[in-house]
Amino acid sequence: MKDNTHRFDGMAEAYDLYRPSYPVEAFRALAGDVAGLARCALDVGAGTGLSTRVLADALGPDWSIIAIEPGEDMRRVLTRRLARVPQVQVRAASAEDLASPDGSASLVIACTAFHWFDRDRFFHEAARVLVPGGVMALIRNRRRPTPVVRRFDEFIAGNMSGEERREREQRPTDPTVDELSALAMFNAAGTRVASWTSVTDGPGLIDLYLTRSTIKPVAQRLGLDALKQALVAIVAEEHGAGPFVLEWETTTRWAKRG
Fold first, then answer.
1. Which residues, at least 6 apart from 87, have a Cβ–Cβ distance to it below 8 Å?
2. Which has the closest alpha carbon to 192: 249, 136, 247, 241?
3. For residue 105, what are the β-bridge partners?
4. Which residues of 219-252 are buried (b: 16+ CB within 10 A; e: fewer)?
5. Which of 8, 62, 118, 251 is the most exposed place for a label (fewest CB within 10 A)?
6. Does pLDDT of 3 surpass 70?
């Protein structure tokens, strides 16, 4: 599998500024799932700590949280962001080698980064470090297809190379609940969906899109200024000036360790 460790090098600061966080309710529900178990959680592929900070708030100060991030640039921002959160330890490790003892955690989460993992190796590692009854959760934010979002996606796809489109199409989809239920060492699975909104404007949405690793080659091909001008024109056609609402869904798929 392709090594994606450095995919976001040079983008960590922008990623931290413009990527959305996660609804705290999603993490509180997971805390309820593992009530009474060991108070240790792993946030795998933690990036700049957007998920880790909310997880820490949801779980409370009695929990120990290990934020695992292999990318040096992302980990630099992650360490700075969480420097004053004593319950969080930042670790240079990967989804395929969590560098944690057997049966040491009751919760293992992966937010958005999951599609970059070698999933079979990650599932094995998650099962290994979880206590019986512990939970592995895969969490993803998705924008609902409002007109401006559809136009942005169509423009970017239309300016990808054939190889880039094939790579995107071949990226593994998120596992279904049935697939999670069938995993060895897991004996139950389920899903939850939370809907929410955020307010942005044209520049804010463009900055968000520029944090996507798939847009880097498009920006290099067109030129960053030309790409921005094209996206500005789309916003003007769809919304004009001023703020507008983005609609989001946060999906949590979870599996319980047998």
1. 56, 61, 63, 64, 65
2. 249
3. 130
4. beeeeeeebbebbeebbeebbeeeebebebebeb
5. 62
6. no
What DSSP element (H or E) covers 76?
helix 72-81
- Rounded-to-integer distance, Cα 55 and Cα 44, Å: 12
Residue 195, pLDDT > 70, answer yes
Q: Count the Cβ atoms, other than its own, within 10 Å of residue 217.
A: 14
What does pTM read for this prediction? 0.91
3-state class (DSSP) for residue 37: coil
Q: Rounded to the nearest 5°, which phi and psi values hold at 173?
A: -80, 165
The SS3 assignment for 244 reads strand
Burial class of residue 191, CB neighbours in 10 A (0-12, 13-18, 19+): middle
CA distance 76 to 80: 6
What confidence tier does 7 reach under pLDDT thresholds 50, 70, 90? low
Residue 91's H or E segment, with its range, is strand 88-91
